[in-house]
Amino acid sequence: MEIKIVFDSNSIPEDSQKMAKVLIETLCRVVKADGATFMNLDKEKKELAITISCDRDLETAQKKLGISVKIGERVCGKAAENKEAILVVGDIAKNPRFARLKKYEEIYSGMSVPAIKENEVIGVLNVKRTKSSEALNNDDLNIAGIFANKLAENL
């Protein structure tokens, strides 16, 4: 599986981009994900913005750069707000916690994992499966947590 990765070069220093690329490509292979994003936290605006995007399709990855979400909104915003990893399996519209959310794409399972540095959320790592109906699980969530923390150390 080949994943294409794009960066918001204004937000991710060039020397950190290689490390982030290797980490995200490796995570996608290990958990058999079809894509992932990393969202940096802007504390002043109280929002997350996609600064790293990877997908099988380069155009899809590029379109996601810069998309922002307020803290507390959507799955990634809740993960940041509560400093907790969230796993969603199946149709988000059928999940009582997130049923009111508009779906942007068909995701069979996904997760949002806060990246924490010195007990502060600095961003959120989002991982998805869109091609496989095999759900991500708690083991995958734990693995993504390790990668999110490694990203937090290096970004």
The CATH superfamily bears the name GAF domain
- Indicate the CATH class: Alpha Beta
Tally of DSSP helical segments: 4
Mean pLDDT: 88
User: Helical percent range?
Assistant: 25-40%
The amount of beta strand, in percent, is 25-35%
Instruction: From the 3D structure, determine the CATH topology.
Output: Beta-Lactamase
Structural class: alpha+beta
Quick structural gist:
The chain is of the alpha+beta class. It contains four helices and seven strands.
Tell me about this structure.
The protein is α+β, with helices and mostly antiparallel strands and about 160 residues long. It has a single domain, classed as GAF domain (Beta-Lactamase). It is about 35% helix and about 30% strand. The chain contains 4 helices and 7 strands, in the order βαββαβαβββα. Strands 1, 2, 3, 4, 5, 6 and 7 form a 7-stranded antiparallel sheet that branches. A hairpin with a 4-residue loop joins strand 2 and strand 3. Helix 1 packs antiparallel against helix 4. The radius of gyration is 14 Å and the shape is globular.
Task: Indicate the topology.
Blueprint: E1 4-7, H1 14-31, E2 35-42, E3 47-55, H2 58-64, E4 68-70, H3 74-82, E5 86-89, E6 109-117, E7 120-129, H4 138-154
Helix pairs in contact: 1-4
Descriptive tags:
155 residues, alpha+beta, Beta-Lactamase, 7-stranded antiparallel β-sheet, 4 helices, 7 strands, 33% helix
